[in-house]
Amino acid sequence: MRFAIILLLVLVFACVIGSLIPQGYSYSYYYSAYSERLAAIILALNLDSVFHSWWFVLITAFLVLNLLLCNIIRLPSLIKRTKAYASPVILPNSFPKAGETIEGVYKGDIQSFFKTLGMKSSSGSDRHYAHKNVIGVWGAWICHIGVLLLILGYSLGQMTYKEYTVYGVPGEMKRIGDTSLVLSIDDFEIGLREDDTVEQYTAVITVYNLEQGTEGKTAVISVNNPADLYGLRFYQNSTGWAATVSVDKEGAFLQESVVCAGDYLVVSDNEDLVIYFNAFYPDYVLIQGYGPATQSSSLNNPAYLYSVYYKGQILGMNVLLKDEVLTIDDYTVHFTEPQNYTLIQIKKDSFTFLAFIGGLVIMAGLFLAFYVQVSAVEAVECEDGSWKITATCKKSNMAFKNKLNEVLTSEPKGEENNV
Questions:
Q1: Could you give phi then psi for residue 28, rounded to 5 degrees?
Q2: In angstroms, rounded to a whole number, what is the distance separating the alpha carbons of residues 83 and 91?
Q3: Cα separation, 54 vs 77, whole angstroms
Q4: How buried is 4 (Cβ within 10 angstroms: 0-12 exposed, 13-18 middle, 19+ buried)?
């Protein structure tokens, strides 16, 4: 157990590091965010991908092995303890001594005594024995099994976890990462409340498997209401603005594409020239000392913030209002048709079910450990016809002790029962 605690502390420390250091970035990012030496240390120790690093997997494997061996070591004693509670009355010295022991004298009918306690006795000639809730002794052990399953489910899930992001406007079809699946965004709607605040984002999607023909699966997804298709889970994550960006060259149409804010368009006949769509303001206003902003989500005064790059160097940045155009030598760039795009997050975790089962097992173990209290009672007949009562229960089982004392003092026959 001491070793398990050390492993848990190391894992907690690793999780804190993984939360504080941004994960999955390149050396240049860590170099600019920290320093050259720290960036080298981060990459050398896999701190840029803590939860997939070899040392995190190794620590987790040791913890799983440790928990498994702890449970195996405890198994014989638990079996022995269970048998002790369930021992038949004919065995001498079989009464369990674990927990807190209570003794008393009872002078009433012994079967009524056990019935009042909610127990069914095993009868002998002059000795009766009963037990209740023996399964409660397994509570902590079952809880540890649940922790083991939870860690396994999380660890295996992290090692096999895949995540993709697809964003676009209705009518677009996007390939899902390195899979054979294609996602079609059929429709997207933003539900607003009366005060013009967002209530819900809802998208209608169809997913096609290129290896299985042209027939796809359609689903409606919204925030907190994902859909499961082809073994993947699709989440409606967020939204933003997109616009149709068209380029003319010397007055003739050259190209047109829907570009989302934060994305860019490469000029088709000049790959060194890039138009970057920085942001969109549906109700544009320029605030002194702050910069461009929007007064509302309504398209009252649409404006487009853009940047122009040539061979990786920025040529300029500005805001285009409605009907304004951007001219770059022989090229004319138009921003039109603003609309909302949907960002859909796609995840695959094949071991979520194992973590879910682990959580259920933990809850069951906690219930057995704290609410299913083990108790046992032995009654031995004395020469005067009274019964010597010996009871045992798990520590702090006040409900059972109070009930037992109540029964022992409730039926005075001759002399008063005493504890």
A1: -60, -35
A2: 12
A3: 36
A4: middle
